[in-house]
Amino acid sequence: MQRILLLLAIALTLLSSSCISTKKLSYLQEDKASMDSIVEVHRLNKPYRLQVGDLLSIRVKALDQDIVEMFNPTGEGIANATGEEQMYYDGFAVDQHGNIRVPTLGEINVMGYTVEEIREKIEDQLLSEYFKQEANIFVTVKLAGIRYTTIGEIGAGSNVLYKERVTIMEAIANAGGISDVGDREDVKILRQYPHGEEVHHIDLTNLDAVKSEYYYIQPNDLIIVDPLPQKSLGAGTTGIESFRTIGTVISLISTSILLFTRF
After folding, report:
1. Alpha carbon of residue 75 to chain centroid
2. Which residues make Cβ contacts (< 8 Å) with residue 22, sequence separation at least 6?
3. Over the chain, what is the mean pLDDT?
4. Per-residue pLDDT for 181 more than 80?
5. Please, which pLDDT band fits residue 131 given cuts at 50, 70 and 90?
6. Which of 93-97, 175-179, 180-184, 233-237 has the lowest mean pLDDT?
7. DSSP states of the chain
8. Any idea which architecture 23-46+145-227 has in CATH?
9. Which residues form the signal peptide (predicted)?
10. Least confident of 56-60, 101-105, 144-148, 244-248
């Protein structure tokens, strides 16, 4: 009888510690004390500044488009290339020295500049060296998508989203979401800076995550989702799964005890 009670106590302990609560699985949880949550978001609206490895899309337009064609990519990088592949060949990559090479204009330093500052820089150079104001030069400069990588308890791989700004929730959803055994309370972001790399943390189960300066991802971010302890235990993510697993273990233990007591 004592052995049975001991086994039941062990089973209840394992069951309570092994299954994953909905609190750990739910995103952006609000305060239950209020009916609706009004989130005052104080984001750092600092524009992104270019780094080594970034890819830019640059186009020059004018009233007479023929006179500016020499400044635009030819689109002959590879036959039948589309989307990201085409951008790889037609885009302007920032090299190790922080420069891009633009047709006719040559090398232009863009390291640490915003896309708006680069647009003004190219426009000023075109007007001072090649055209007059009457040509109505129109330059567009954009990041060729926001590229990021995900590893861990999330759809692993490299991803590109063609938007001006991307939240970490959009990035995770695009990667396939976090698994049931992924730690949503401590999602890590490895981010590149001119001085090196830094790791930042964000709790995606808390509604206050939208106030974080890391809620919006940046190009070349690495999003890391570590597993919860329940994964190493292998006891299941729900109560039923855990109960079945623990029941099997207890059954084996009970059988072993009975066999040994008979001898």
Report:
1. 29
2. none
3. 80
4. yes
5. confident
6. 233-237
7. -HHHHHHHHHHHHHHHHHSPPHHHH-SSBPPTTSSS---------PPP---TT-EEEEEEE-SSGGGGGGGS--S-SSTT--HHHHHHHHSEE--TTSEEEETTTEEEE-TT--HHHHHHHHHHHHHHHT--GGG--EEEEEES-EEEEEEESB--EEEEE-SS--BHHHHHHHTT-B-TTB-GGGEEEEEEETTEEEEEEE-TTBGGGGGSTTSB--TTEEEEEPBPHHHHHT--SSHHHHHHHHHHHHHHHHHHHHHHHH-
8. Roll (3.10)
9. none
10. 244-248
Q: How far is CA 41 from CA 107, 143, 209, 211, in A?
A: 40, 25, 10, 5
Tokens of 188: 């890590």
Domains 23-46+145-227 and 55-143 share a fold: no
For 41-95, write each residue's pLDDT tens digit.
545 557 899 999 899 999 999 888 888 888 887 655 555 555 667 777 888 999 9
Distance of CA 87 to CAs 102, 160, 241, Å? Answer: 14, 11, 47
pLDDT score for 224 = 96
Find residue 227's DSSP bridge partners. Answer: 182
Q: How far are the Cα atoms of 4, 20, 48, 96, 227 from residue 15, in angstroms, in the given order? A: 16, 10, 47, 54, 19
User: Under CATH, domain 55-143 is a member of which superfamily?
Assistant: wza like domain (3.30.1950.10)
pLDDT of residue 63: 84
Domain positions in the chain: 2-20+231-262, 23-46+145-227, 55-143
